[in-house]
Design goal:
It is built from 13 helices and ten strands. It is of the alpha/beta class. The longest helix has 20 residues. The protein starts with a strand and ends with a strand.
């Protein structure tokens, strides 16, 4: 039976909008993770079959097939191809899926799955302003006929989820405080040391607040009048990159590699694009069904904290334990560098499975357009 092994996984620290990584060109940011991965695995970079890099806002310095330019910016062999993937926030998780599928199909043996995003240089939805200048819009006639002129946005989706599942502001803020607490504890205890490749003098994630002022959090205005969602219960604008090397059994033997995990189950779903952020619920169900597992068979979960209600609703519907979810904090504390986040979460999950001696982890995240990936990874 074919296997898709993860040889290693590495990430940059996640930086803030005005932090130490803010001015690094996205191609150089991606190159940092790729270089670190090649160095850590010791594999001949010339043997890599393809480089798949997730990136959401492919505009300006993030355009021009950044998966290719990042590889070349790292000084790595020209004959190795690269491409860029956009499945919204799940872009680099989808890169991991495509890498695993290439290996499982027997068509490739060594594939890099990576992600990059510098939101300080290329803000989220920067391409929308380009459309406005062109005098056009994102939605076509068919979309408008189907969904009407109603607002479609992540903020509205998060608010609709909050209302549908009946979460109060205290619920959301309690979750956010816990995200910071866990991330701060993980940092202080050195849990991220094995997965981080320091960059530009930064050796820890910048957005974590060890001592969150709950009163100040409660005083923040909502993102819109009448909303429950505030900035404090939302993921941060961030900068980061990550990369994983996926290998076939033949490649493991040929190159003398020692895998640390394997990708066992892949799922991707479409869901209501108006609610937008509920996809992790059916994606998790699909992954478990394909694997022949129950939610209790999973040791650790990574569910992206785009907004607090996303994870709370997912846990409520799937029965996943919040005690075993995002155990080292999530995007509310650490940030969400869009196209890099899927690879960042996979890196966190692989290393935490190994650190704790756990066997099986499930990763999922909400994505634009009402989509979601779910991945089950087993530690070796």
């Amino acid at each position: 039976m074919a296997e898709a092994y993860i040889v290693d996984a590495v990430r940059s620290p996640v930086g803030t909008r005005k932090g130490a990584l803010a001015e690094i060109h996205p191609a150089d940011l991606g190159a940092h993770a790729l270089s670190a991965l090649m160095e850590r695995t010791g594999v001949d970079p010339g043997a890599v079959d393809d480089v798949l890099m997730g990136c959401v806002t492919q505009l300006g310095p993030q355009a021009g097939v950044i998966g290719r330019t990042a590889w070349l910016s790292a000084g790595l062999p020209e004959h190795v191809p690269g491409t860029t993937i956009n499945r919204a926030c799940g872009s680099s998780q989808q890169a991991l899926h495509f890498a695993a599928q290439a290996v499982l199909s027997g068509t490739q043996d060594l594939v890099v799955a990576a992600g990059v995003e510098n939101m300080a240089i290329v803000p989220i939805d920067a391409n929308a302003s380009v459309l406005e200048k062109m005098g056009t819009r994102r939605e076509g006639a068919g979309w408008i006929e189907r969904y009407g002129e109603q607002e479609i946005s992540q903020f509205r989706g998060a608010q609709l989820i909050t209302e549908k599942w009946g979460f109060g502001r205290d619920d959301l803020e309690e979750f956010a405080v816990e995200s910071h607490r866990r991330a701060a504890a993980a940092t202080d205890e050195g849990r991220f040391a094995a997965q981080l490749a320091p960059l530009n003098g930064l050796d820890r994630d910048e957005g974590i607040r060890p001592n969150v002022d709950r009163e100040k959090m409660a005083s923040l205005p909502p993102v819109r009048e009448g909303y429950t969602i505030t900035a404090a219960v939302s993921s941060q604008v961030s900068v980061g990159s990550a990369a994983l090397l996926v290998a076939s059994e033949a490649a493991v033997r040929t190159h003398g590699l020692t895998p640390i995990a394997k990708v066992t189950t892949l799922a991707v779903v479409g869901e209501d694009p108006v609610l937008m952020l509920t996809g992790p619920i059916p994606a998790t169900a699909m992954a478990l069904k394909r694997a022949g597992l129950t939610i209790d068979d999973i040791d650790l979960f990574e569910c992206n904290e785009a907004f607090a209600p996303v994870v709370l609703a997912w846990a409520k519907e799937t029965g996943a334990s919040l005690e075993r979810t995002n155990v080292n904090g999530g995007a509310i504390a650490m940030g969400h560098p869009l196209g890099a986040t899927g690879a960042v979460l996979a890196t966190k999950l692989v290393h935490e499975l190994r650190r704790t001696g756990s066997t099986r982890g499930l990763q999922t995240m909400c994505e634009g357009g009402g989509q979601s990936n779910a991945t089950i990874i087993e530690s070796l």
